[in-house]
Design goal:
Number of strands of chain B: 22
Helix content of chain B: 25-40%
Largest sheet of chain A: 11 strands, mixed
Number of strands of chain A: 30
Number of helices of chain B: 17
CATH architecture of the largest domain in chain A: 3-Layer(bba) Sandwich
Largest interface: A-B, 45 and 45 residues
Shape of chain A: elongated
CATH class of the largest domain in chain A: Alpha Beta
Strand content of chain B: 15-25%
Number of domains of chain B: 3
Structural class of chain A: mainly beta
Structural class of chain B: alpha/beta
Number of helices of chain A: 5
Distance between the termini of chain A: 16 Å
Oligomer: heterodimer
């Protein structure tokens, strides 16, 4: 039995997601709390900047005497303009806080000041129940629903009504397709090929877009977009794999969470869309690390059959010569539209 | 090399050796044992590396590869519980000793700090090129951005490792210690579990003060000064220490390393260092006036390693690979450069999309001929980009016969999936010729089983085995390469030759400019070739027009006469260039 990559395209699974602050902060949600997608879970201060303030020089004192003039303790929060040291001498020299922040360290005539940075608010994104917490850092939300993983995302996340923008998984989404009924929706379509479509989506406005592919030249446009963009299959003009398109289309009209986060394959983090569904008691957590066996549904990820979905009908033991001349262990795959094709195991992705 | 190997064999300790290399895509294992008083490769096997989600345990991939190896060599290597049998049992099962290397590229983020941009920062940058690390910040005191900027830069960079250099031996230290204080503050400001390791490779006179200064905030390691004198750069000792730090960080990031490390008593070799060890071995074995070069292109990195005399240069580029970072080639090359090496027409968008799709599906392989040509054109551009960076660190002195070209090297060893997993050996040879443009006379050797990293690890425990395996069919010769340096008009004669085989047959001919010709000479065969270049061409045999007789070894391709000139004469017209690439492929048997 062989192992290969795996993508979740699942109609009903239990999904647990850790939602974490980028830095230590405050978690406001509670264990067992039921949350909606837009609910606040916690907040923290982003990328604080630091200043090394030469107190001794500012007060015109030797370091040891300057330390005697310090008015605040390390760790203490201060407001902009608060006196940190002094007053000293006839001129009543003082050192003031350059902005709101806190004193990190002080001594030897110097002071390390941390200015308060931008506040980051962590939202739930996934409706569900909080089943785990990590003090000051994260919560784990559990929900039940349909799940489709992507291969690329622009780093944004949103929640909205799922709508289908094209009739087939291979059809291109164009400005002409973007009718008013798609406003404020998370739109599912075959592919995008023009930057203009991205701009029209922004003006609609769309809550998000999921397509099989787009040209890699559109990456900068997608990264600039204010809405999440997720690709399910790759770059170029690949159609969306039929398994994902059919599952998403069958859930059109339902609310969905689109998290177009960047992939971190080491940790199994991938962009994904989750459609919360009522639990019927049969859902389970998705299987991980499944093997290539006869009967498994797979997607072929490269030419000459990119994006095609089929079922493994045999796994020949010996390597087979490919049209490229390379020899590789292959699988025979039956395609729904008819015919059996041969593809190297290295070019298969299990859809589970 | 043969005589050295034979001499060494008398000192054999006949233990079987299992080498394990945990790579980015694959974990490769190989079994070496003594057969007829010489170490030989008995078998190799591989399995997918299981460092990533969902397995997150590299030992699983190792065990799978060992099971496959046991089937291939017909020997019991593991017990009924699946544990490796170590040492060898009286019944012959198990292995005598294990050598372990890590070629795997995990994200190890490093910040480089140097006192002066022109000296210590430059040296620490050269040092960083010898390890599989991602440089996320570079700062020097000369930046004049102030201590606060340095502080915030280091905090935002979130490094796993801070490498600091500064000060010549016995030189001034005040400015260095002040900089280190800021580095210490930045480490202090990071949460405990995110604090980086600190490696100091500066003025050894202040090493104790550095340890004392930074002790409160975490682990501090000290390596030899990379800039002992203002005009001298010495990277060897610091390189080992840096790579040790990298593997330590990998241990903290990867699961399942404890078991294989227990087999080796904690010893391991970073893959690139392993390649460097073997190239240094070859440099000593060939003892010529030329350098020795190793080139590896894989899913994790591109490595250029060269030994010129006693100087070893190691350039590891995790940003240049045929895997998750494939699209980053465009930061160091252009779509035009890639298209330049294609025998068929492909739009710039097609090439760009190919690179980005490779980042998504890094283990996928070319099924079609068009994809194979694209992948090989990308491999050429990866090597060319890595070479541009590596050349800056070479200390080759008088070895440089032809400025602007590769210094004379023999042999050139090719490793890594992109170069070794080819349908025809001519394709590997042509990738090397196009990317490196070796001038003069050299030979190309293929690391057919991608053993170099593991062999380097084996050298720690049994150098004799390494010497003998290098001299075996596991490292087939692709062929002797004759590349006259110079240019003339297409069709003009570049070289006349007469080749005398060992059986007495002779062939003779002349090679026109702009072509490649392969003279048949199979593996294990040898011949004497009298060479006479035309007056504009230099073979390195005494100057332009100077000929001579060489003894050539055969190989999988043969004797390759590359008469395309140096630098290679290519065409600005894309159509003519495509046609030329197609012809060169045909001529070399690709």
């Amino acid at each position: 039995m062989e192992r290969t990559s795996q993508t979740h395209v699942a109609p009903l699974v239990v999904i647990r997601r850790r939602r974490a602050l980028p830095l230590a902060g405050t978690i406001v949600a509670r264990l067992n709390q039921r949350v909606q997608a837009g609910d606040l879970l916690g907040r923290c201060t982003l990328t604080p900047s630091h200043s090394l303030i030469d107190v001794a020089h500012a007060l015109g004192l030797p370091a040891a005497r300057a330390d005697e003039q310090l008015k605040r303790k390390a760790g203490e929060a201060v407001s902009s303009g608060d006196i940190l040291a002094g007053p000293v001498g006839l001129m009543r020299k003082v050192v003031r806080a350059p902005s709101a922040g806190r004193i990190v360290l002080q001594g030897d005539g110097r002071l390390l000041f941390e200015a308060m940075g931008e506040v980051f608010e962590l939202r739930a994104t996934y409706p569900g129940v909080i089943v785990g917490m990590e003090s000051e850092r994260s919560v784990t939300i559990e929900t039940v629903g349909a799940q489709v993983e992507g291969v690329w995302g622009n780093g944004r996340e949103e929640f909205g009504l799922l709508r289908v923008g094209t009739a087939s998984p291979s059809e291109e989404l164009t400005p002409a397709n973007l009718e008013i009924g798609l406003r404020s929706a998370v739109i599912v379509a075959g592919r995008i090929s023009e930057a203009e479509t991205m701009r029209v989506l922004a003006g609609l406005p769309a809550r998000g877009v999921i397509v099989g592919s787009m040209p890699s030249t559109l990456i900068p446009v997608a990264e600039e977009a204010a809405y999440p963009v997720m690709l399910t299959d790759g770059f170029g003009s690949r159609p969306m794999n039929t398994a994902a398109f059919e599952l998403l289309a069958s859930n059109a009209g339902r609310e969905a969470s689109l998290n177009a986060q960047a992939s971190v394959r080491w940790q199994g983090i991938r962009p994904e869309i989750i459609v919360p569904l009522p639990s019927v008691g049969t859902a389970d957590v998705p299987s991980e690390g499944v093997m290539l066996v006869v009967g498994r549904q797979v997607r072929i990820v490269r030419d000459p059959y990119p994006g095609m979905v089929g079922t493994i009908v045999s796994l020949p033991a010996d390597p087979i010569e490919l049209p490229s001349g390379l020899h590789a262990t292959c699988a025979e795959i039956e395609l729904p539209e008819g015919g059996i094709v041969l593809a190297p195991l290295a070019n298969l992705d299990i859809l589970e | 090399m043969t005589s050295r190997a034979a001499e060494a064999s008398s000192k054999l300790e006949a233990e079987s050796i299992l080498s394990v290399d945990v790579g980015t895509s694959f974990t490769r294992v190989a079994l070496f044992d003594v057969v007829e008083n010489r170490y030989r490769l008995l078998g190799v096997a591989r399995a997918l590396t299981t460092a990533e989600f969902p397995v997150l345990d590299v030992s699983e991939g190792i065990h799978q590869a060992v099971e496959a190896l046991a089937r291939i060599v017909g020997r019991t290597l593991s017990d009924s519980r699946g544990q490796l049998i170590l040492p060898t049992r009286p019944d012959g099962s198990g292995v005598g000793v294990v050598a372990l290397s890590f070629s795997l590229q995990a994200e190890v983020r490093a910040a480089l700090v140097g006192l002066l941009a022109e000296y210590s920062l430059k040296s620490v940058r050269n040092l960083a090129r010898s390890a599989p690390i991602e440089v996320v910040a570079e700062v020097s005191l000369g930046d004049r951005e102030g201590e606060e900027a340095l502080l915030d830069l280091l905090i935002e960079a979130h490094p796993d490792l801070i490498v600091i250099a500064g000060g010549t031996e016995g030189g001034a230290s005040q400015a260095l210690l002040r900089t280190l204080e800021v580095v210490g503050l930045s480490v202090f400001l990071l949460p405990g579990e995110q604090r980086p390791q600190v490696l100091f490779v500066g003025n050894s006179a202040v090493a104790d003060q550095v340890r004392e200064l930074l002790k409160p905030v975490g682990a501090v390691y000290v390596g030899p000064n990379v800039r002992p004198r203002l005009e001298a750069e010495t990277l060897d000792g610091a390189r080992s220490e840096l790579n040790n730090r990298v593997v330590e960080i990998l241990r903290s990031k990867l699961g399942g390393l404890d078991e294989p490390l227990a087999w080796t008593g904690g010893a391991f070799t970073p893959g690139a260092v392993g390649i460097g060890t073997v190239i240094r071995f070859l440099g000593q074995a060939f003892e010529g006036k030329k350098g020795v070069m190793g080139v590896s292109v894989g899913a994790g990195s591109t490595i250029i390693c060269s030994a010129f005399g006693s100087s070893l240069s190691l350039s590891v580029r995790p940003d240049l690979n045929l895997g998750r970072s494939a699209s980053r080639l465009l930061e160091n090359s252009t779509l035009e450069e890639i298209a330049h090496w294609l025998p068929m027409e492909a739009s710039r968008d097609t090439i760009r999309d190919y690179l980005f799709n490779k980042t998504i599906y890094p283990r996928s392989i070319p099924s079609t001929l068009e994809d194979l040509w694209l992948e090989q054109a990308i491999a050429r551009s990866l090597i060319r980009a890595a070479l541009r960076g590596a050349a800056a660190t070479w200390q080759i002195g008088r070895m440089h016969l032809w400025p602007g070209l590769l210094p004379p090297c023999e042999p050139i060893v090719a490793s890594g999936g992109a170069l070794t997993n080819v349908p025809r050996p001519g394709q590997a040879a042509l990738m090397l010729l196009d990317a490196l443009e070796p001038p003069g006379i050299t030979s190309l050797i293929l690391d057919a089983h991608n053993l170099l990293p593991a062999l380097g690890a084996t050298a720690r425990i049994n150098p004799v085995a390494v010497v003998q395996v290098l001299d075996s069919p596991s490292f087939p010769n692709l062929g002797t390469v004759i590349s006259p340096v110079g240019h003339t008009r297409p069709g003009d004669t570049v070289l006349r030759y007469q080749m005398a085989y060992e059986d007495g047959r002779t062939i003779r001919g002349q090679i026109p400019f702009g072509t490649i010709e392969v003279l048949p000479l199979g593996p294990g065969q040898a011949a004497r070739i009298a060479l006479q270049p035309s007056r504009h061409f230099d073979l390195g045999l005494g100057g332009p027009g100077q000929g001579g007789t060489i003894r050539a070894a055969g190989g999988l391709v043969g004797v390759i006469v590359d008469a395309r000139g140096r630098p290679i004469a290519t065409f600005s017209d894309p159509g003519r260039q495509r046609k030329a690439v197609e012809e060169w492929l045909m001529q070399i048997g690709g």
